Amino acid sequence: MKERGLLLVISGPSGAGKGTICKALMENNTMWLSVSATTRQPRNGELPGKNYFFISHEEFQARIEKGDFLEYAEVYGNYYGTPKSNVIDILETGKDVILEIDIQGALKVKDAFPEGIFIFILPPSMEELKQRIINRGSETPESLMTRFMSAYKEINFVSKYNYAVVNDTVEAAAKKIESIVIAERCRVDRLKDTLINKEELTHGKLYD
Amino acid sequence: MKERGLLLVISGPSGAGKGTICKALMENNTMWLSVSATTRQPRNGELPGKNYFFISHEEFQARIEKGDFLEYAEVYGNYYGTPKSNVIDILETGKDVILEIDIQGALKVKDAFPEGIFIFILPPSMEELKQRIINRGSETPESLMTRFMSAYKEINFVSKYNYAVVNDTVEAAAKKIESIVIAERCRVDRLKDTLINKEELTHGKLYD
């Protein structure tokens, strides 16, 4: 039996550096980045199946009804969601899947897929978080303040996660996440459900 | 505040390779190996404070009554035990402590110090385990069989541990344990008790 892959949910406040960390994880590991489905139109340069799966409103609705989303949300009349079947298909091949997602989304995924590994990315400091939000440059002072206050409040949600990783440097944060993956593969709680059960151990099947 | 060290309890059946793995961990990391106290006489070449703390029967009894052992056992009229105060003193300096111990001992430590990380070392296979026990050479066929059967039964106790690490190679097993330590430092459950509490987060103290 091939060992199932792990679903890594990389989440945290806007500006904490989720995206950069996920990129680093992808470069050093054979992990698959979960691609969202959306009903909005592709923008310039966006590739179907890479940036998003672009699907019709009708198909999205049908898949909601079939329960085929780990989470979904409607934003300005368009749907965005994480297709469950795609994620499961990859996990079954033994590959790990990274899901980069905001906090609201991550909490929904936790309900639908509690065996995922929920990692909260913390900015090195609140000052740093403010700078990162400012450095994006595309915000008005008001929306900047709103974003900052929202990120500040969101940090309380860390208690719903399994792990908290401070993003001091991208390399160090990615290294910690790689260690988390190695450790999770050794967790007895996780092994109990798959490889090791008392019956098999007693009859020595584990060691055949 | 200095972050407290972690207590790593490395345990498993006789012949699984606990000792070699602990040695490898000590060589690559700044970890402190817990030294047991005993009432037995030092053997040739044994150093006090390195191999054992050699103490009198009276002192051992007094320390049992003070609750100063994470675990202790009497073997052929001599006491052996893990001094709690020594372990705690080192943990308080921020260093991690390795405790290499048999399964019975580990389960007692778990009662006394549940915040430890309990790692069960599994032999690569039961055949390998048999070979390792045979290779020690100091056993009669009967005691060998007893040891093997006991190791075989003991493997069921893996379910009481946090992690199971298969000892395919010493290097790979040590690497996994190092990853477990890194991951445990990121666990929200562990952070909750020390650094992160909602109050501090709400008032931004975490980030001052």
UniProtKB/TrEMBL annotation, chains A, B:
What is the organism of origin for this protein?
Candidatus Clostridium radicumherbarum
Q: Which residues form a coiled coil?
A: none
Q: Which reaction does it catalyse?
A: GMP + ATP = GDP + ADP
Family annotation (InterPro entries): GK/Ca_channel_bsu (IPR008145), Guanylate_kin-like_dom (IPR008144), Guanylate_kinase (IPR017665), Guanylate_kinase_CS (IPR020590), P-loop_NTPase (IPR027417)
- Tell me yes or no: is Phosphoprotein among this UniProt entry's keywords: no
Where does it primarily localize? cytoplasm
| Gene name for this UniProt entry | gmk
Signal sequence span is none
The protein's UniProt keywords, in alphabetical order, are: ATP-binding, Cytoplasm, Kinase, Nucleotide-binding, Transferase
Q: What does this protein do?
A: Essential for recycling GMP and indirectly, cGMP.
State where the protein is found.
Cytoplasm
Name listed for the protein in its UniProt record: Guanylate kinase
The molecular function terms in GO held by this entry are: GMP kinase activity
**Residue ranges constituting the Guanylate kinase-like domain according to the UniProt record:** 5-182
CDD domains attached here? GMPK (cd00071)
Q: Which family does it belong to?
A: Belongs to the guanylate kinase family.
Q: What is its EC number?
A: 2.7.4.8
The record lists ATP as bound by 12-19
The organism sits in which domain of life? Bacteria
